[in-house]
Structures are given as structure tokens and as C-alpha cells.
Amino acid sequence: MNHALAPPRLRARTGRRDPAAAHPFRPPPRSHVMAVHQGVRPFACSAPGCAASFAAASDRDAHEAQVHRRERPFECQLCTKVFARRSHLRSHQLKMHPALPHD
User: With the C-alpha atoms ordered 24, 25, 26, 27, is the resulting torsion angle positive or negative?
Assistant: First the structure.
């Protein structure tokens, strides 16, 4: 059977396409293998005294912004409390302002 022409298989529970079904012998991405299985973390934090390092530059940049520069770009429009992550703002809104509609 030619896998390229085969219809995509769906996962039974979710109805989503099973990525392993179309390419059963595809190896994982090299970056995944290096970061997860080999522990390669080439992006070191530039803050003095911080030993944190990351597999992706975007993760390092987010770390530096949130931890070292204390950036809090997500503000609650109801009480002006600020958060480093959108998920923290959402949790706050659901807990502190449950009766109001949220995005």
C-alpha cells in the first residue's frame, strides 16, 4: 500500500488525524532528539549569575523577560492586576471574576 495515497487515519477517540499513521517510519525531529533525549540546551540565559539554559531561543527570551526584567504584559481589565503569562491572567479572571464573560 502506498502511504502517500492512503486516506489519513483518524484517532478513534478524538477524530483527529493520527500523524503516525501516514508516516509510520518517520523519525522524530532532530531538535526534539537533541533537546529531550540528549539534554542539549544551547541557549543560555544572559543574566549574571543565572545558570538557566534552554533548547529554544524563544524559551530563553521569555524567561529573561518574565524572570529578570519582570515584564508583565497581560493586565486584567477589571482590577488592573498584571501577569507574565496569558494563562495566569485567564486563571485569575475565572477565579476572581467568575460572573463576568471572558475572552
Answer: positive
> Residues 18, 11: contact at Cβ < 8 Å?
yes
Q: Which CATH number fits domain 40-71: 1.10.357, 3.10.450, 1.10.1060, 3.30.160?
A: 3.30.160
Q: How many helices (H) and strands (E) does the chain have?
A: 4, 4
pLDDT per residue over 43-80, tens digit each? 999 999 999 999 999 999 999 999 999 999 999 999 98
29: left (phi over 0), alpha (psi -120 to 50) or beta: beta
